[in-house]
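Trying the structure run again after the queue cleared.
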Amino acid sequence: MKLWQKKYNLNKKIEDYTVGNDFQIDHVILAYDCKASIAHAEMLNQINILTEDELQSLVNELNNIIELSKKGEFVIEKSDEDCHTAIEKYLTKKLGDTGKKIHTARSRNDQVLTALRLYYLDNLKLIKTKIIDLQKTLEIVSNENKGIEFPGYTHTRKAMVTSVDMWIGALKDSMDDNLLQLEALYKLLSQSPLGTAAGYGVPITINRDYTAQKMGFAKVQKNPIYAQHSRGKFEAALLSFLSLLMFDGNKYASDLILLSMPEFGFFNLPDEFLTGSSIMPQKKNPDVLELLRANYHVVTSAEFQIKSMMSNLISGYHRDFQFFKEPVVKSIEIVQNSLDIMILVFSNLKFDKEKCKEAITEEVLATEKVYKLVEQGMTFRDAYKKIAEGY
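Done. Tokens:
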């Protein structure tokens, strides 16, 4: 039975269309909803809605649901619509009237907001760890290959001399900035919406500060209308951060694809990182880098998908919000996997010192020649013109 069940049954085609695959996606937030429900039950005990025995029974069963979920043994039916209904249905079946009390002073609206926030925060911690691991890898690779020089490019043409440690250092510095953005984003997301219900609060006095503290949020999101407004806004901010992370992956994948071509040969990947062709036996293809490059566009499109769907809606909840969930979940998974791939690739990347040196042809040194003349007293413009005569 649905949480909103009336005296009629929903048309089957309408149910299929409105539920979509939400009941499947909800497995990723089920444990977080249980954790939020435990905090909520403890607060209901504080305000005398639940007795001590009822509270303990609910906490035990919610923890049991988490364990069942880990084993893949907790089922969310399409008829449930989402994990919130499945959880309450389970609790009511196990505990009778005690299970029916868990929804007191909340709505599925603030339930899903809370569970998603907890899911986002947990995954941001994991992403932070992976960024730091990538930086450590970059530091090792840079130190091992210090002093290897190769041509830098502008306009896809040889420009000036650069080095492996400068090229890798640019990615490491970018990750420093990404960590700054992550900290700001974490602070934004660390606001508890639990207790805002369907966007207009609840008509009884509850302790929202208590539940926020229990769940580990930094603060309470006080205005209930804004809690609904922030759904989509916070997701867009998260996706913007994730897309910038993927931009770094895109940039370095592009460099590696080009500069590992036999025509360049500056960098080399192990054979076991390369795929083959079904028709051309000689091919060793950098598919992993091409997919890393492409996944930037997948995550960026998710950001614009969310921003587009959240616009032109009046205040309050709309079912459109249901479509915010999948793009974010998918993007988080892409970013975590992509960071793992970047660590793996850089850990195994080889640099051909001789080919790098051979590629530093005469024109790459033109700017250095200009500045040698400047050091001898010639004005920059005259030195520039003198060297330019040879090209």
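Residues 12-100 form a domain with the Fumarase C; Chain B, domain 1 fold (CATH 1.10.275.10). Worth checking whether this holds up in the mutant runs.
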